[in-house]
From TrEMBL:
Family stated for the protein in its record: Belongs to the cytochrome P450 family.
Annotated positions binding heme: C471
Obligatory cofactor(s): heme
Swiss-Prot/TrEMBL GO biological process terms: isoquinoline alkaloid biosynthetic process; lipid metabolic process
Keyword annotations from UniProtKB, A to Z: Heme, Iron, Membrane, Metal-binding, Monooxygenase, Oxidoreductase, Transmembrane, Transmembrane helix
Matches recorded under Pfam families: p450
TM regions (residue ranges): 12-34
Keyword field contains Transmembrane: yes
InterPro entries xref list: Cyt_P450, Cyt_P450_CS, Cyt_P450_E_grp-I, Cyt_P450_sf
Gene3D superfamilies reported in the protein's UniProt record: Cytochrome P450 (1.10.630.10)
GO terms assigned for molecular function: heme binding; iron ion binding; monooxygenase activity; oxidoreductase activity, acting on paired donors, with incorporation or reduction of molecular oxygen
Protein name (record): Cytochrome P450
Domain of life: Eukaryota
Protein backbone atom coordinates (compact mmCIF):
# COMPACT_ATOMS: atom_id res chain seq x y z
CA UNK A 1 0.00 0.00 0.00
CA UNK A 2 2.76 2.37 1.04
CA UNK A 3 4.92 1.36 -1.90
CA UNK A 4 2.05 1.89 -4.34
CA UNK A 5 1.44 5.33 -2.92
CA UNK A 6 5.12 6.14 -3.11
CA UNK A 7 5.42 4.97 -6.72
CA UNK A 8 2.30 6.77 -7.93
CA UNK A 9 3.24 9.99 -6.19
CA UNK A 10 6.86 9.83 -7.35
CA UNK A 11 6.91 8.57 -10.95
CA UNK A 12 10.47 9.81 -11.27
CA UNK A 13 11.67 7.47 -8.51
CA UNK A 14 9.78 4.64 -10.18
CA UNK A 15 11.52 5.33 -13.46
CA UNK A 16 14.95 5.39 -11.82
CA UNK A 17 14.10 2.19 -9.99
CA UNK A 18 13.05 0.42 -13.20
CA UNK A 19 16.14 1.60 -15.05
CA UNK A 20 18.35 0.35 -12.24
CA UNK A 21 16.57 -3.02 -12.26
CA UNK A 22 17.09 -3.32 -16.05
CA UNK A 23 20.74 -2.36 -15.72
CA UNK A 24 21.18 -4.88 -12.94
CA UNK A 25 19.57 -7.66 -15.01
CA UNK A 26 21.75 -6.81 -18.02
CA UNK A 27 24.98 -6.71 -16.04
CA UNK A 28 24.11 -9.73 -13.91
CA UNK A 29 25.29 -12.32 -16.47
CA UNK A 30 28.56 -10.40 -16.77
CA UNK A 31 28.90 -10.35 -12.95
CA UNK A 32 28.21 -14.08 -12.84
CA UNK A 33 30.78 -14.63 -15.60
CA UNK A 34 33.42 -12.71 -13.61
CA UNK A 35 32.51 -14.66 -10.48
CA UNK A 36 32.88 -17.97 -12.30
CA UNK A 37 36.17 -17.10 -13.97
CA UNK A 38 37.72 -15.55 -10.85
CA UNK A 39 39.72 -17.82 -8.60
CA UNK A 40 39.61 -15.24 -5.80
CA UNK A 41 38.58 -16.11 -2.24
CA UNK A 42 35.33 -14.75 -0.73
CA UNK A 43 34.24 -13.41 -4.13
CA UNK A 44 31.11 -11.27 -4.05
CA UNK A 45 29.32 -10.71 -7.30
CA UNK A 46 30.22 -7.23 -8.69
CA UNK A 47 32.38 -6.37 -5.67
CA UNK A 48 35.03 -9.10 -5.86
CA UNK A 49 36.90 -9.70 -2.61
CA UNK A 50 36.34 -6.01 -1.74
CA UNK A 51 33.81 -6.51 1.09
CA UNK A 52 35.93 -9.13 2.89
CA UNK A 53 39.01 -7.01 2.38
CA UNK A 54 37.29 -3.95 3.80
CA UNK A 55 35.78 -5.91 6.68
CA UNK A 56 39.22 -7.25 7.63
CA UNK A 57 41.23 -4.15 6.75
CA UNK A 58 42.14 -3.55 10.40
CA UNK A 59 43.45 -7.10 10.84
CA UNK A 60 44.84 -8.08 7.46
CA UNK A 61 47.78 -10.11 8.79
CA UNK A 62 45.55 -12.29 10.96
CA UNK A 63 42.88 -12.60 8.27
CA UNK A 64 45.41 -13.81 5.69
CA UNK A 65 46.70 -16.45 8.14
CA UNK A 66 43.11 -17.60 8.80
CA UNK A 67 42.37 -17.88 5.06
CA UNK A 68 45.53 -19.94 4.44
CA UNK A 69 44.56 -22.29 7.28
CA UNK A 70 40.96 -22.62 6.09
CA UNK A 71 42.03 -23.28 2.47
CA UNK A 72 44.76 -25.66 3.59
CA UNK A 73 47.16 -24.16 1.05
CA UNK A 74 49.73 -21.41 0.79
CA UNK A 75 48.32 -19.09 -1.89
CA UNK A 76 45.08 -17.37 -2.79
CA UNK A 77 43.90 -14.59 -5.08
CA UNK A 78 42.14 -11.36 -4.19
CA UNK A 79 40.12 -9.55 -6.87
CA UNK A 80 38.91 -5.99 -6.74
CA UNK A 81 35.41 -4.91 -7.86
CA UNK A 82 34.27 -5.85 -11.38
CA UNK A 83 36.12 -3.86 -14.10
CA UNK A 84 38.77 -2.69 -11.60
CA UNK A 85 42.36 -3.71 -12.29
CA UNK A 86 42.99 -4.61 -8.65
CA UNK A 87 44.27 -8.19 -8.40
CA UNK A 88 46.57 -9.71 -5.80
CA UNK A 89 48.10 -13.09 -5.24
CA UNK A 90 48.71 -13.52 -1.52
CA UNK A 91 51.19 -16.25 -0.68
CA UNK A 92 52.97 -17.68 2.34
CA UNK A 93 54.25 -20.75 0.53
CA UNK A 94 57.99 -20.85 1.38
CA UNK A 95 58.97 -22.18 -2.05
CA UNK A 96 57.02 -19.41 -3.78
CA UNK A 97 58.70 -16.84 -1.56
CA UNK A 98 62.13 -18.22 -2.32
CA UNK A 99 61.33 -18.27 -6.04
CA UNK A 100 60.13 -14.66 -6.02
CA UNK A 101 62.83 -13.18 -3.79
CA UNK A 102 65.76 -15.23 -5.01
CA UNK A 103 65.50 -17.75 -7.86
CA UNK A 104 63.67 -15.54 -10.36
CA UNK A 105 64.37 -12.21 -8.62
CA UNK A 106 64.48 -10.16 -11.85
CA UNK A 107 60.91 -11.07 -12.76
CA UNK A 108 59.53 -9.59 -9.53
CA UNK A 109 60.57 -5.95 -9.02
CA UNK A 110 58.86 -3.61 -6.58
CA UNK A 111 57.21 -1.99 -9.58
CA UNK A 112 55.49 1.26 -10.40
CA UNK A 113 52.43 0.88 -8.14
CA UNK A 114 54.68 0.36 -5.08
CA UNK A 115 56.69 3.40 -6.07
CA UNK A 116 53.55 5.46 -6.47
CA UNK A 117 52.04 4.39 -3.15
CA UNK A 118 55.32 5.00 -1.32
CA UNK A 119 56.20 8.24 -3.11
CA UNK A 120 57.46 9.74 0.17
CA UNK A 121 60.47 7.39 -0.11
CA UNK A 122 61.48 9.12 -3.38
CA UNK A 123 64.53 7.54 -4.99
CA UNK A 124 65.66 5.87 -1.77
CA UNK A 125 66.88 2.27 -1.77
CA UNK A 126 63.47 0.81 -0.83
CA UNK A 127 61.79 2.44 -3.78
CA UNK A 128 64.09 1.77 -6.72
CA UNK A 129 64.62 -1.23 -9.00
CA UNK A 130 67.08 -2.41 -11.66
CA UNK A 131 70.47 -0.71 -12.17
CA UNK A 132 69.65 2.22 -9.93
CA UNK A 133 68.86 -0.16 -7.05
CA UNK A 134 72.02 -2.23 -7.77
CA UNK A 135 74.18 0.87 -7.41
CA UNK A 136 72.52 2.02 -4.19
CA UNK A 137 72.62 -1.50 -2.78
CA UNK A 138 76.35 -1.82 -3.52
CA UNK A 139 77.09 1.40 -1.69
CA UNK A 140 74.83 0.59 1.28
CA UNK A 141 76.17 -2.94 1.58
CA UNK A 142 79.78 -1.71 1.60
CA UNK A 143 79.02 0.90 4.27
CA UNK A 144 76.99 -1.38 6.55
CA UNK A 145 79.67 -4.08 6.33
CA UNK A 146 82.58 -1.71 7.06
CA UNK A 147 84.49 -2.07 10.33
CA UNK A 148 84.04 1.65 11.13
CA UNK A 149 80.27 1.42 10.84
CA UNK A 150 80.07 -1.74 12.94
CA UNK A 151 82.18 -0.09 15.66
CA UNK A 152 79.96 3.00 15.51
CA UNK A 153 76.90 0.76 15.92
CA UNK A 154 78.35 -1.07 18.95
CA UNK A 155 79.50 2.13 20.65
CA UNK A 156 76.30 4.03 19.94
CA UNK A 157 74.00 1.24 21.14
CA UNK A 158 76.05 0.97 24.35
CA UNK A 159 75.90 4.72 24.87
CA UNK A 160 72.15 5.10 24.23
CA UNK A 161 71.41 2.11 26.48
CA UNK A 162 73.65 3.33 29.29
CA UNK A 163 72.99 7.06 29.19
CA UNK A 164 69.35 7.21 28.10
CA UNK A 165 67.42 3.94 28.26
CA UNK A 166 68.51 2.60 31.66
CA UNK A 167 68.26 5.96 33.52
CA UNK A 168 64.76 6.44 32.10
CA UNK A 169 63.63 2.95 33.19
CA UNK A 170 65.26 3.45 36.61
CA UNK A 171 63.25 6.66 36.96
CA UNK A 172 60.00 4.87 36.02
CA UNK A 173 60.80 2.08 38.52
CA UNK A 174 61.37 4.65 41.25
CA UNK A 175 58.12 6.44 40.46
CA UNK A 176 56.22 3.15 40.50
CA UNK A 177 54.23 4.28 37.45
CA UNK A 178 53.47 2.29 34.29
CA UNK A 179 54.93 3.12 30.91
CA UNK A 180 54.37 2.28 27.24
CA UNK A 181 57.36 0.10 26.41
CA UNK A 182 56.56 0.25 22.68
CA UNK A 183 56.99 4.02 22.82
CA UNK A 184 60.27 3.63 24.73
CA UNK A 185 61.58 1.14 22.14
CA UNK A 186 60.57 3.48 19.35
CA UNK A 187 62.35 6.41 21.03
CA UNK A 188 65.42 4.26 21.56
CA UNK A 189 65.50 3.22 17.89
CA UNK A 190 64.98 6.83 16.79
CA UNK A 191 67.89 8.24 18.82
CA UNK A 192 70.14 5.36 17.78
CA UNK A 193 69.33 5.81 14.09
CA UNK A 194 69.67 9.59 14.12
CA UNK A 195 73.11 9.06 15.60
CA UNK A 196 74.49 6.38 13.26
CA UNK A 197 72.72 7.64 10.13
CA UNK A 198 72.74 11.42 10.48
CA UNK A 199 75.61 11.74 12.96
CA UNK A 200 73.57 13.92 15.36
CA UNK A 201 72.54 13.43 18.94
CA UNK A 202 68.83 13.62 19.79
CA UNK A 203 67.35 13.25 23.23
CA UNK A 204 63.97 11.85 22.27
CA UNK A 205 64.54 9.04 24.76
CA UNK A 206 64.66 10.95 28.02
CA UNK A 207 62.71 11.20 31.26
CA UNK A 208 60.53 14.07 30.01
CA UNK A 209 59.42 12.00 26.97
CA UNK A 210 59.68 15.10 24.75
CA UNK A 211 58.01 15.44 21.38
CA UNK A 212 60.14 15.45 18.24
CA UNK A 213 59.07 17.01 14.93
CA UNK A 214 60.80 14.45 12.73
CA UNK A 215 59.50 11.45 14.69
CA UNK A 216 55.96 12.89 14.71
CA UNK A 217 56.01 13.65 10.99
CA UNK A 218 57.35 10.15 10.20
CA UNK A 219 54.53 8.64 12.32
CA UNK A 220 51.90 10.72 10.52
CA UNK A 221 53.30 9.71 7.16
CA UNK A 222 53.28 6.00 8.05
CA UNK A 223 49.72 6.21 9.28
CA UNK A 224 48.59 7.88 6.08
CA UNK A 225 50.55 5.45 3.89
CA UNK A 226 48.64 2.63 5.51
CA UNK A 227 45.38 4.01 4.09
CA UNK A 228 46.88 3.92 0.61
CA UNK A 229 47.44 0.19 0.98
CA UNK A 230 43.89 -0.67 1.92
CA UNK A 231 41.95 1.73 -0.30
CA UNK A 232 41.52 1.48 -4.09
CA UNK A 233 44.18 3.49 -5.92
CA UNK A 234 41.62 5.76 -7.64
CA UNK A 235 40.21 6.67 -4.22
CA UNK A 236 43.43 7.80 -2.55
CA UNK A 237 44.47 9.56 -5.76
CA UNK A 238 41.18 11.46 -5.69
CA UNK A 239 41.78 12.43 -2.04
CA UNK A 240 45.30 13.51 -3.01
CA UNK A 241 44.00 15.61 -5.89
CA UNK A 242 41.49 17.32 -3.61
CA UNK A 243 44.04 17.63 -0.80
CA UNK A 244 41.71 16.18 1.83
CA UNK A 245 41.63 13.49 4.54
CA UNK A 246 44.67 11.31 5.13
CA UNK A 247 46.27 12.66 1.95
CA UNK A 248 46.31 16.15 3.41
CA UNK A 249 48.07 14.81 6.51
CA UNK A 250 50.53 12.90 4.34
CA UNK A 251 51.39 15.97 2.26
CA UNK A 252 52.09 17.99 5.40
CA UNK A 253 54.22 15.22 6.92
CA UNK A 254 56.05 14.74 3.61
CA UNK A 255 56.99 18.43 3.50
CA UNK A 256 58.07 18.50 7.14
CA UNK A 257 60.26 15.39 6.85
CA UNK A 258 61.96 16.75 3.73
CA UNK A 259 62.53 20.14 5.30
CA UNK A 260 64.13 18.67 8.46
CA UNK A 261 66.36 16.30 6.49
CA UNK A 262 67.48 19.07 4.15
CA UNK A 263 68.53 21.02 7.25
CA UNK A 264 70.55 18.08 8.56
CA UNK A 265 72.25 17.77 5.16
CA UNK A 266 73.24 21.42 4.92
CA UNK A 267 74.59 21.45 8.51
CA UNK A 268 76.65 18.34 7.87
CA UNK A 269 78.04 19.87 4.66
CA UNK A 270 79.00 23.00 6.62
CA UNK A 271 80.70 20.87 9.30
CA UNK A 272 82.63 18.97 6.62
CA UNK A 273 83.75 22.22 4.97
CA UNK A 274 84.79 23.64 8.33
CA UNK A 275 86.88 20.52 9.00
CA UNK A 276 84.77 19.53 12.02
CA UNK A 277 84.97 15.80 12.79
CA UNK A 278 81.77 14.11 11.65
CA UNK A 279 80.47 10.56 11.87
CA UNK A 280 77.48 8.59 10.54
CA UNK A 281 76.29 7.49 7.13
CA UNK A 282 75.25 10.97 5.98
CA UNK A 283 78.77 12.41 6.04
CA UNK A 284 80.17 9.26 4.37
CA UNK A 285 77.59 9.60 1.58
CA UNK A 286 78.28 13.34 1.15
CA UNK A 287 81.97 12.59 0.71
CA UNK A 288 81.24 9.71 -1.69
CA UNK A 289 79.04 11.91 -3.89
CA UNK A 290 81.94 14.29 -4.36
CA UNK A 291 84.55 11.61 -4.89
CA UNK A 292 85.28 10.93 -8.58
CA UNK A 293 86.19 7.31 -7.83
CA UNK A 294 82.90 6.56 -6.07
CA UNK A 295 79.99 4.74 -7.73
CA UNK A 296 77.74 7.57 -6.54
CA UNK A 297 79.70 10.34 -8.26
CA UNK A 298 77.69 10.32 -11.51
CA UNK A 299 74.32 10.64 -9.75
CA UNK A 300 72.28 13.71 -10.70
CA UNK A 301 70.33 15.72 -8.06
CA UNK A 302 72.75 14.81 -5.32
CA UNK A 303 70.90 16.54 -2.47
CA UNK A 304 67.58 14.95 -3.38
CA UNK A 305 69.27 11.57 -3.44
CA UNK A 306 70.90 12.20 -0.05
CA UNK A 307 67.58 13.25 1.47
CA UNK A 308 65.71 10.24 0.09
CA UNK A 309 68.39 7.70 0.96
CA UNK A 310 68.77 8.92 4.54
CA UNK A 311 65.00 8.92 5.00
CA UNK A 312 64.86 5.33 3.75
CA UNK A 313 67.57 4.26 6.21
CA UNK A 314 65.77 6.03 9.06
CA UNK A 315 62.44 4.39 8.27
CA UNK A 316 64.12 1.01 7.71
CA UNK A 317 65.85 1.07 11.06
CA UNK A 318 63.42 2.71 13.42
CA UNK A 319 60.06 0.98 13.19
CA UNK A 320 61.50 -2.47 12.58
CA UNK A 321 63.66 -2.35 15.69
CA UNK A 322 60.94 -0.91 17.88
CA UNK A 323 58.42 -3.50 16.66
CA UNK A 324 60.90 -6.38 17.04
CA UNK A 325 61.72 -5.35 20.62
CA UNK A 326 58.13 -4.70 21.72
CA UNK A 327 56.85 -8.11 20.61
CA UNK A 328 59.90 -9.76 22.14
CA UNK A 329 59.30 -8.19 25.57
CA UNK A 330 55.63 -9.12 25.41
CA UNK A 331 56.35 -12.75 24.51
CA UNK A 332 59.00 -13.04 27.23
CA UNK A 333 56.70 -11.51 29.83
CA UNK A 334 54.13 -14.23 29.00
CA UNK A 335 56.71 -17.02 29.11
CA UNK A 336 58.63 -16.88 32.42
CA UNK A 337 60.59 -20.06 31.59
CA UNK A 338 62.17 -18.27 28.63
CA UNK A 339 63.00 -15.24 30.75
CA UNK A 340 64.71 -17.50 33.32
CA UNK A 341 66.88 -19.10 30.64
CA UNK A 342 67.87 -15.74 29.16
CA UNK A 343 68.80 -14.52 32.66
CA UNK A 344 70.84 -17.67 33.36
CA UNK A 345 72.85 -17.04 30.23
CA UNK A 346 73.36 -13.37 31.15
CA UNK A 347 74.35 -14.23 34.74
CA UNK A 348 76.93 -16.67 33.41
CA UNK A 349 78.30 -14.01 31.08
CA UNK A 350 78.37 -11.31 33.76
CA UNK A 351 80.06 -13.59 36.32
CA UNK A 352 83.09 -13.82 34.05
CA UNK A 353 83.38 -10.03 34.38
CA UNK A 354 82.59 -9.59 38.11
CA UNK A 355 84.97 -7.80 40.40
CA UNK A 356 85.71 -9.26 43.83
CA UNK A 357 85.66 -7.50 47.23
CA UNK A 358 88.30 -8.04 49.96
CA UNK A 359 86.51 -11.21 51.19
CA UNK A 360 86.58 -12.72 47.71
CA UNK A 361 82.81 -12.31 47.08
CA UNK A 362 81.89 -10.97 43.71
CA UNK A 363 80.63 -7.40 43.36
CA UNK A 364 78.27 -6.55 40.58
CA UNK A 365 77.46 -2.91 39.95
CA UNK A 366 73.91 -1.81 39.28
CA UNK A 367 72.99 -1.12 36.56
CA UNK A 368 75.02 -3.71 34.68
CA UNK A 369 75.47 -2.88 31.00
CA UNK A 370 76.86 -5.57 28.71
CA UNK A 371 79.23 -4.81 25.86
CA UNK A 372 77.78 -5.50 22.41
CA UNK A 373 80.73 -7.76 21.54
CA UNK A 374 80.19 -9.92 24.65
CA UNK A 375 76.57 -10.56 23.74
CA UNK A 376 77.35 -11.84 20.24
CA UNK A 377 78.01 -15.42 21.33
CA UNK A 378 74.85 -15.90 23.43
CA UNK A 379 72.97 -18.84 21.96
CA UNK A 380 69.70 -18.75 23.90
CA UNK A 381 69.22 -14.98 23.55
CA UNK A 382 69.80 -15.21 19.79
CA UNK A 383 67.37 -18.13 19.53
CA UNK A 384 64.70 -16.23 21.51
CA UNK A 385 65.03 -13.19 19.23
CA UNK A 386 64.72 -15.32 16.08
CA UNK A 387 61.70 -17.06 17.56
CA UNK A 388 60.01 -13.76 18.34
CA UNK A 389 60.74 -12.44 14.81
CA UNK A 390 59.31 -15.67 13.36
CA UNK A 391 55.98 -15.07 15.12
CA UNK A 392 55.94 -11.28 14.80
CA UNK A 393 58.02 -10.20 11.77
CA UNK A 394 58.31 -6.39 12.01
CA UNK A 395 57.57 -6.15 8.28
CA UNK A 396 54.67 -8.60 7.97
CA UNK A 397 54.37 -8.27 4.17
CA UNK A 398 56.49 -7.71 1.13
CA UNK A 399 54.91 -6.49 -2.07
CA UNK A 400 56.13 -7.36 -5.58
CA UNK A 401 54.97 -6.82 -9.15
CA UNK A 402 55.37 -9.14 -12.14
CA UNK A 403 57.31 -8.45 -15.36
CA UNK A 404 56.50 -11.61 -17.36
CA UNK A 405 53.83 -14.27 -16.95
CA UNK A 406 55.17 -16.98 -14.68
CA UNK A 407 54.19 -20.07 -12.78
CA UNK A 408 55.17 -20.29 -9.10
CA UNK A 409 56.40 -23.55 -7.52
CA UNK A 410 52.94 -24.30 -6.01
CA UNK A 411 51.31 -23.96 -9.45
CA UNK A 412 49.83 -20.45 -8.99
CA UNK A 413 50.13 -18.34 -12.12
CA UNK A 414 50.96 -14.66 -12.11
CA UNK A 415 50.96 -12.19 -15.00
CA UNK A 416 51.83 -8.51 -15.46
CA UNK A 417 49.28 -6.31 -13.69
CA UNK A 418 48.86 -8.56 -10.69
CA UNK A 419 50.51 -7.60 -7.38
CA UNK A 420 52.01 -10.26 -5.15
CA UNK A 421 51.82 -10.01 -1.37
CA UNK A 422 54.30 -12.21 0.47
CA UNK A 423 52.78 -12.75 3.90
CA UNK A 424 55.78 -13.28 6.20
CA UNK A 425 53.43 -13.12 9.19
CA UNK A 426 51.53 -16.16 7.95
CA UNK A 427 54.65 -18.24 7.20
CA UNK A 428 55.45 -18.48 10.91
CA UNK A 429 51.89 -19.61 11.70
CA UNK A 430 51.45 -22.50 9.29
CA UNK A 431 51.65 -25.96 10.95
CA UNK A 432 52.78 -27.45 7.63
CA UNK A 433 55.79 -25.09 7.64
CA UNK A 434 56.82 -24.84 11.31
CA UNK A 435 55.06 -27.85 12.86
CA UNK A 436 51.96 -28.31 15.01
CA UNK A 437 53.49 -26.19 17.79
CA UNK A 438 54.06 -23.26 15.40
CA UNK A 439 52.07 -20.81 17.54
CA UNK A 440 54.19 -21.49 20.63
CA UNK A 441 57.05 -19.20 21.58
CA UNK A 442 59.77 -21.84 21.79
CA UNK A 443 63.38 -20.63 21.40
CA UNK A 444 64.46 -24.28 21.81
CA UNK A 445 63.46 -24.98 18.22
CA UNK A 446 66.51 -22.94 17.19
CA UNK A 447 68.99 -24.92 19.28
CA UNK A 448 70.54 -28.23 18.19
CA UNK A 449 71.16 -31.16 20.55
CA UNK A 450 74.82 -30.18 20.86
CA UNK A 451 73.70 -26.80 22.26
CA UNK A 452 74.70 -24.86 19.16
CA UNK A 453 72.41 -22.58 17.18
CA UNK A 454 70.68 -24.28 14.28
CA UNK A 455 71.80 -22.45 11.17
CA UNK A 456 69.00 -20.11 10.29
CA UNK A 457 66.52 -22.08 8.15
CA UNK A 458 66.70 -19.75 5.12
CA UNK A 459 64.01 -21.76 3.36
CA UNK A 460 61.30 -20.75 5.87
CA UNK A 461 62.54 -17.76 7.90
CA UNK A 462 61.92 -14.50 6.04
CA UNK A 463 61.65 -11.59 8.53
CA UNK A 464 64.77 -10.01 6.99
CA UNK A 465 63.84 -10.96 3.42
CA UNK A 466 66.11 -13.31 1.50
CA UNK A 467 67.98 -13.07 -1.80
CA UNK A 468 69.54 -9.97 -3.36
CA UNK A 469 67.29 -7.60 -1.36
CA UNK A 470 68.03 -9.12 2.04
CA UNK A 471 67.97 -6.49 4.78
CA UNK A 472 71.34 -4.73 4.93
CA UNK A 473 70.72 -3.91 8.59
CA UNK A 474 70.30 -7.52 9.75
CA UNK A 475 73.56 -7.80 11.70
CA UNK A 476 73.20 -4.43 13.33
CA UNK A 477 69.62 -5.29 14.27
CA UNK A 478 70.78 -8.27 16.32
CA UNK A 479 73.57 -6.21 17.93
CA UNK A 480 71.09 -3.55 18.89
CA UNK A 481 68.29 -5.80 20.09
CA UNK A 482 70.67 -7.91 22.19
CA UNK A 483 72.09 -4.79 23.89
CA UNK A 484 68.61 -3.54 24.78
CA UNK A 485 67.20 -6.90 25.89
CA UNK A 486 70.24 -7.74 28.04
CA UNK A 487 70.22 -4.34 29.77
CA UNK A 488 66.47 -4.31 30.36
CA UNK A 489 66.01 -7.89 31.59
CA UNK A 490 69.16 -7.97 33.70
CA UNK A 491 68.41 -4.73 35.53
CA UNK A 492 64.60 -4.68 35.63
CA UNK A 493 61.49 -6.83 36.02
CA UNK A 494 59.12 -6.01 33.18
CA UNK A 495 55.51 -6.91 33.82
CA UNK A 496 52.67 -6.20 31.40
CA UNK A 497 49.93 -4.21 33.16
CA UNK A 498 47.04 -6.55 34.09
CA UNK A 499 44.17 -6.35 31.60
CA UNK A 500 46.23 -4.54 28.97
CA UNK A 501 45.07 -5.82 25.58
CA UNK A 502 47.81 -6.45 23.04
CA UNK A 503 46.93 -6.85 19.36
CA UNK A 504 48.71 -6.15 16.07
CA UNK A 505 48.14 -2.82 14.35
CA UNK A 506 47.45 -3.28 10.65
CA UNK A 507 49.99 -3.25 7.85
CA UNK A 508 53.33 -1.73 7.00
CA UNK A 509 55.07 -2.27 10.35
CA UNK A 510 53.73 -4.73 12.87
CA UNK A 511 53.17 -2.44 15.85
CA UNK A 512 50.77 -2.96 18.74
CA UNK A 513 47.47 -1.10 18.49
CA UNK A 514 47.41 -0.05 22.14
CA UNK A 515 51.15 0.01 22.76
CA UNK A 516 52.67 -2.16 25.49
CA UNK A 517 51.80 -0.86 28.95
CA UNK A 518 54.21 -2.29 31.51
CA UNK A 519 55.22 -1.87 35.14
CA UNK A 520 58.95 -1.71 35.73
CA UNK A 521 60.72 -2.79 38.92
CA UNK A 522 64.40 -2.70 39.68
CA UNK A 523 66.03 -6.15 39.64
CA UNK A 524 69.26 -6.94 41.44
CA UNK A 525 70.99 -10.16 40.62
C1 LIG B 1 64.43 -6.27 13.33
C2 LIG B 1 64.89 -5.38 12.51
C3 LIG B 1 64.72 -5.40 11.01
C4 LIG B 1 63.94 -6.18 10.21
C5 LIG B 1 63.00 -7.28 10.63
C6 LIG B 1 64.17 -5.76 8.84
C7 LIG B 1 63.54 -6.32 7.74
C8 LIG B 1 63.77 -5.93 6.43
C9 LIG B 1 63.05 -6.44 5.29
C10 LIG B 1 61.93 -7.47 5.32
C11 LIG B 1 63.53 -5.82 4.19
C12 LIG B 1 63.06 -5.97 2.74
C13 LIG B 1 62.08 -4.87 2.46
C14 LIG B 1 61.65 -4.79 1.03
O1 LIG B 1 62.21 -5.42 0.15
O2 LIG B 1 60.71 -4.01 0.78
C15 LIG B 1 64.56 -4.92 4.63
C16 LIG B 1 65.29 -4.13 3.80
C17 LIG B 1 66.18 -3.19 4.24
N1 LIG B 1 66.57 -2.96 5.54
FE1 LIG B 1 65.91 -3.93 7.18
N2 LIG B 1 65.06 -4.74 8.83
C18 LIG B 1 65.44 -4.49 10.13
C19 LIG B 1 66.32 -3.53 10.57
C20 LIG B 1 67.03 -2.71 9.77
C21 LIG B 1 67.95 -1.71 10.22
C22 LIG B 1 68.30 -1.41 11.69
C23 LIG B 1 68.42 -1.08 9.10
C24 LIG B 1 69.39 0.05 8.99
C25 LIG B 1 69.44 1.11 9.68
C26 LIG B 1 67.80 -1.70 7.95
C27 LIG B 1 68.03 -1.35 6.65
C28 LIG B 1 67.43 -1.92 5.56
C29 LIG B 1 67.62 -1.45 4.19
C30 LIG B 1 68.50 -0.29 3.75
C31 LIG B 1 66.84 -2.27 3.37
C32 LIG B 1 66.68 -2.18 1.84
C33 LIG B 1 67.49 -3.26 1.17
C34 LIG B 1 67.29 -3.30 -0.32
O3 LIG B 1 66.20 -2.98 -0.80
O4 LIG B 1 68.24 -3.66 -1.00
N3 LIG B 1 66.96 -2.68 8.39
N4 LIG B 1 64.68 -5.00 6.01
Amino acid sequence: MHLEYLLSSCPFILKVFLILCCLFLCVLPLGLYFKNTSKAVNYWIFFGTGPSLLWNSKRLSEWFAEVFISLGKGSFYIDGPMFSKLRYLVTCHPQNIEYILKTNFNNFPKGESFREAFDILGDGIFNVDSDRWRMQRKMAHAEFASREFKTLVSNTSHKVVQEQLVPLLAHVAEQGSSIDLQDICSRFAFDFNISVILGRHENYLSIELPSNELAAAADDAQEALLYRQIRPTFFWKLLRMCGIGEERKLKKAHKKVHHILEDYISHTREDLLAGIKTYGLLSTYIRALEDKTSILFSLPKKDTFLRDEMLNFLIAGRDTISSGLSWFFWLVSKTPAVETKILEELIFLSSSKDREDETGSSIRNWPWIFGAEDLKGLVYLHAALCESLRLYPPLPFNRKSVVKKDQLPDGSTVAPGIEILLSFYSVGRMPWVWGEDCLEFKPERWIAENGKLITEPVDKFFPFNIGPRTCVGKDISFTLMKSVVAAVLFNFHVEVVKGHHVCPKPFINLHMTNGLKVNIKKRTI
